[in-house]
Amino acid sequence: MKSDIRVCSDWEAVHERPVYTLGDACPECGADAVNSAPAPFNPEDPHGSYRRRARRRGNETDE
Ligand SMILES: [Zn+2]
């Protein structure tokens, strides 16, 4: 089963620890929530922009 758990895209700046949510926005700060797997955020992740597009499409097929 795929997980729909997402993490606040801005948690490193706003929170002391990752904030997870099942929605598409952080419940604490309102920032975009992004797919939490495989990593909350990685500047070297070539798929970072892809994940943001996937979120916008509401598409959960990010493997
Ligand atoms: Zn947040």
UniProtKB/TrEMBL annotation:
Note the Pfam families from the entry: Nop10p (PF04135)
Membrane-spanning intervals of the chain? none
Which InterPro entries does the protein's record reference? H/ACA_rnp_Nop10 (IPR007264), H/ACA_rnp_Nop10_sf (IPR036756), Nop10_arc-typ (IPR023532)
Gene3D superfamilies assigned to the protein according to its UniProt record, in alphabetical order: H/ACA ribonucleoprotein complex, subunit Nop10
Q: Which GO terms describe its biological process?
A: rRNA processing
- Recorded GO CC terms: ribonucleoprotein complex
Q: What does this protein do?
A: Involved in ribosome biogenesis; more specifically in 18S rRNA pseudouridylation and in cleavage of pre-rRNA.
Task: Give the protein's recorded name.
Answer: Ribosome biogenesis protein Nop10
Species in which this protein is naturally found: Halobaculum marinum
- Protein encoded by which gene: nop10
